[in-house]
Amino acid sequence: QQLNKEKQRRSLANDWQAPADDASPETFFPLKVSDYALSAHGTKADIPEIHFDIPGWHARYGSGESQLDVFAYQVTDLEREALFGRIEKIADDDDDFGHDQDNPSVYLFLTDYRCCYKTSSDQFHLWWMKGWLLVFRTNDTKDCEGFVLDFLTTTSAQNKSATP
To answer: Which of 45, 62, 123, 139 lies at a CB distance of 3.0 to 4.6 Å from 58, suitable for a disulfide?
Structure first.
């Protein structure tokens, strides 16, 4: 079952349609993704918790009490590797990482195109596709992967229809 889910994720990443060269936060971020509505967007895209201080875009989505931040960066494979490395170092430096296998305070999953990093207070899902690194961040306790998959599907369809 896990292998099937990962196969579906990789297929979604491979099929994802990147934004057009003239895209902007206004044209990239959908107004609605599943039950979440866009509440703000802009170009301030720093994420201090994971030491990301590179140019990019940021949007905030909300649904009831739930808030999700989405960041978009244009990066090369080498830059993606360095950024994933920052997260790996943060997880390794965490005192509690790996000490309690039954209840770890930090969870890290890393592949060549995807990274999932969770702490007791935040969760980050990172997807690198076609020169774009998308970072999804929330402090909700509920896993936000459903939103991530819906966001990727929505933006891909939106970007495909915007391409001449």
So the answer is: 45
**Residues 150, 123: Cα–Cα separation, whole Å:** 17
The pTM for the full model equals 0.91
- Please answer whether residues 106 and 97 qualify as being in contact, where contact means their C-beta atoms are separated by less than 8 angstroms: yes
User: Mean pLDDT, to the nearest integer, of 87-105?
Assistant: 67
Task: Check residue 12 and report its DSSP letter.
Answer: H
Order of strands, edge to edge, in the sheet holding 66-74? Answer: 32-33, 36-42, 57-63, 66-74, 132-138, 123-129, 114-118, 107-110
**What pLDDT band is residue 21 in, cutting at 50, 70 and 90?**
confident
**Are the C-beta atoms of residues 130 and 15 closer than 8 Å to each other?**
no
